[in-house]
Write a structure and sequence with these properties.
Phosphoribosyl-aminoimidazole Synthetase, Chain A, domain 2; alpha+beta; 27 helices; 752 residues; 28 strands; seven-stranded mixed sheet
Length: 752
């Protein structure tokens, strides 16, 4: 083999894959061709280990306009001639190397995916994972990532409306930075990335091409991460001010009706953009790198084709329309250069003037090998699922405090504490469509001014649950995000996912990936939601230690009347509080599986997560119906920290209509408080799914309980709002102000 293993490692190709390339070409590839194959066959671009598994996920519904893999993002028909376009992607490895630029360019990249569909970006979300914030290195990463997200999003004028942050030791060397963008377009204005007309001109618009990002997202995301300092040149550098004008210029160009196809330049740069576009159209191309505008001198053809410089788009148009399109970009002072043409011959041909640098069949470049491996859990994986009461001494008996002490401890836990220090760095009101913003409800709600409708968006993940049981964890993350959409009153329409896992070549990691996708697929079918877009990020490990298997799922919901949304906080005193999904608090050791209580108080990640998907569907449907009928004034699901933490959050986020205060107390009914089992830890802090707390007018309590009974949903009236304390019989009696101080102060040291 004439190519060294070191070179193959650099471009994330195996020796066997190199031999496969030689066989397909019937010759040795030259350096430019090899670089193009390496980029397109990377895990990030080629989905070598995940594509066969991703086919398990349902991807269509009656509202689907663009399904997973067909275009740059998923598109959903929301009626009135409008489509919502959305997608989540990872920028994990670049963010570990250079947190500010890695996170910023992650935002820029996902925004361009939405732009490539012809949609105007209207919202950003993010899902972040770091090691414990007690470590200075993790705090540095967190601050850098948050700065990058805020800087880029604020500059381009797209509101950051929701997100989540979790901390665990498994992410110390491999932080996760997943960015989601949502856009809106008229259905007839949706753009395609397929270049299918021979003779059409390839127009490269936006920033000049530099050396930044070569083997960035494509190469970094296809190998394990070890030495960050050596990899800094592979991290892209962003310019959000150029991105803002690029957005406007592209949308105006599309409005002319003369743009045949539109594709963003992300991972693998020009190589991916052009090859993917012509592959969709079953065509080829000729591209002359001499025509590519650059910001650095002395760049080779390899550099130009593999650069991941940001703020660039590829447009395809008929030759007679090029002048009109170029005028649009000149108006916005955005560079626009014709760099090639679409050809009938299905060959990817790269030239430098009259010299041919690369020539390979498009089908070979675009058709990365697919691997279906055999997964197997380790004995340690199976042992972690076994847990008994004897393994978890009651907190009081172990000297860890009473129920009130535990509640305060959990509210101050980094995984539950207020994220206000993050939200305040993001502008979530720009564009003036945000009805329910970050921290106000279980999902963000944005009005659509033209129609009176609203959409809800949420993003969720739970690495611990998937670490313990990837199948159940996959089910539960789908249930969580759709439940959050239901808690603001919207019907879940579709999902997008980003699958963050370790090295899939390890049998135990492949098992996690396969089982998690299987669980997600089954949950999606049960709840009737397709996965219409997504991304994978594999090889997230260092020194042989992988991250928790972490599927991140973004969700889209629809509300026909924007005024009928719901928030999480109790809106006043004198309201009855109903628990949907259970008639009483029970103590099952399985409810502690992967819980924040078990982790924060006992230092364990153990147990067997469970979920009843049929019950989950009924609970969500009932919650939506109650909100739509005006019977529910607030709704909040029981999730991290369990029932007691959810109840405390409802109090903290409350707004007393009578007293004018900023929070609302709660007193449990005597019968309910007395029914709390002896193992109050599992009852109050266990994380059994499929439970929602709703506040209703006392006069409407019979109607709510009757509706629950008719829907086959167990429910119980558990108490009444009012006062300034949270009281659950003799177990918990704490001022809401004290609860709020613990919750708001939990992450204050991160920003000091």
């Amino acid at each position: 083999m004439p190519v060294s293993k070191e070179i193959l490692d650099e471009i994330a190709l195996s020796p066997d894959e190199y031999e496969m390339i030689v066989e397909r070409l019937d010759r040795e590839p030259n350096p430019v061709e090899l670089g193009m194959f390496g980029a397109l066959w990377s895990e990030h671009c080629g989905y070598k280990h995940s594509r066969p598994l991703l086919r398990m996920l349902p991807s269509t519904s009656e509202r689907t306009l663009s399904q997973a893999g067909a275009e740059n993002a998923g598109a959903i028909d929301i009626g009135n001639g409008l489509a919502v376009v959305f997608k989540v992607e990872s920028h994990n490895h670049p963010s570990a190397v250079e947190p500010l630029q890695g996170a910023a360019t992650g935002v820029g990249g996902i925004v361009r995916d939405i732009l490539a569909m012809g949609a105007r970006p209207v919202a950003l979300l993010n899902s972040l994972r770091f090691g414990p914030p007690s470590e200075p290195a993790n705090r540095r990463l967190l601050r850098g990532v948050v700065d990058g997200i805020g800087w880029y999003g604020n500059c381009i004028g797209v509101p950051d409306v929701a997100g989540e942050i979790y901390f665990d030791e498994s992410y110390s060397q491999n932080p996760l930075v997943n960015a989601m963008c949502v856009g809106i377009a008229r259905i007839e204005d949706l753009a395609s990335a397929a270049a299918d007309t021979p003779g059409d001109v390839l127009l490269l618009v936006g920033a000049g091409t530099g050396r930044d990002g070569i083997h960035g997202a494509s190469g970094l995301a296809s190998r394990t991460f070890e030495e960050e300092q050596e990899l800094r040149p592979t991290v892209q550098v962003g310019n959000p001010f150029l991105e803002k004008t690029l957005i406007e210029a592209c949308l105006e160009a599309l409005a002319t009706g003369k743009v045949r196809a539109l594709q963003d330049l992300g991972a693998a740069g020009l190589t991916s953009a052009v090859v993917e576009s012509v592959a969709r159209g079953r065509r080829g191309f000729v591209l002359d790198i001499d025509r590519v505008h650059r910001r650095e001198s002395g760049m080779s053809g390899y550099d130009v084709m593999l650069s991941e410089s940001q703020e660039r788009m590829l447009l395809v148009a008929a030759e007679e329309h090029v002048s009109e399109i170029r005028n649009v970009f000149q108006k916005w002072d955005v560079a626009c250069h014709a760099v090639g043409t679409v050809t009938e011959e299905q060959t990817a041909r790269v030239t430098e003037g009259s010299q041919t640098l690369a020539a390979a069949p498009v089908e070979h470049l675009a058709d990365a090998p697919q691997y279906r491996l055999s997964g197997q859990p380790t004995p340690e994986d199976e042992a972690r699922r076994r847990i008994e009461w004897a393994d978890v001494p009651l907190a009081e008996a172990a000297g860890l405090g009473n129920a009130g002490d535990v509640l305060l401890r959990l509210l101050a836990s980094p995984n539950i504490a207020s994220r206000q220090g993050v939200y305040r760095q993001y502008d979530h009101q720009v564009q003036t469509n945000t009805v329910v913003g970050p921290g106000e409800g279980d999902a963000a709600v944005l009005r659509i001014k033209e129609t009176g409708q609203a959409i809800a968006v949420a993003i969720d993940g739970n690495g611990r649950q998937c670490y313990l049981d990837p199948y159940r964890g996959g089910q539960r993350v789908v249930a969580e995000v759709t439940r959050n959409l239901s808690c603001v009153g919207t019907e879940p329409l579709a999902l997008t996912d980003c699958l963050n896992f370790g090295n899939p070549e390890r049998p135990d990691i492949y098992y996690q990936l396969e089982q998690c996708i299987s669980g997600m697929a089954d949950a999606c079918r049960q709840l009737g939601v397709p996965v219409v877009s997504g991304n994978v990020s594999l090889y997230n490990e260092s020194q042989g230690t992988a991250i928790f298997p972490t599927p991140i799922v973004g969700g889209l919901g629809l509300l026909d009347d924007a005024s009928k949304h719901c928030r999480a906080g109790f809106p006043g005193s004198g309201l009855a509080v109903v628990l949907l999904g259970a008639e009483r608090l029970t103590a099952e050791v399985s409810d502690l599986a992967g819980s924040e209580y078990l982790y924060a108080v006992h230092g364990m990640v153990r147990g067997q997560p469970e979920i009843d998907m049929e019950l989950e569907g009924r609970v969500q449907a009932l919650c939506r119906r109650l909100i739509g009928d005006g019977l529910t004034l607030s709704a909040h699901d029981c999730s991290d920290g369990g029932f007691a933490v959810a109840l405390a959050e409802c109090c903290i986020l409350g707004d007393d209509r009578i007293g004018g205060g900023g929070s609302v107390g709660f007193t449990a009914a005597d019968a309910f408080a007395e029914s709390v089992p002896e193992r109050w830890d599992a009852a109050l802090f266990g994380e059994a799914p499929s439970r929602i707390l709703v506040a209703v007018e006392a006069t409407q309590l019979p109607d709510v309980l009757g509706a629950a009974d008719a829907a086959g949903v167990p429910a119980a009236a558990i108490g009444e709002t009012g006062g300034d304390s949270l009281r659950i019989g003799g177990r918990v009696d704490l001022p809401v102000a004290e609860l709020a101080d613990a919750w708001r102060g939990g992450l204050s040291g991160v920003w000091a």
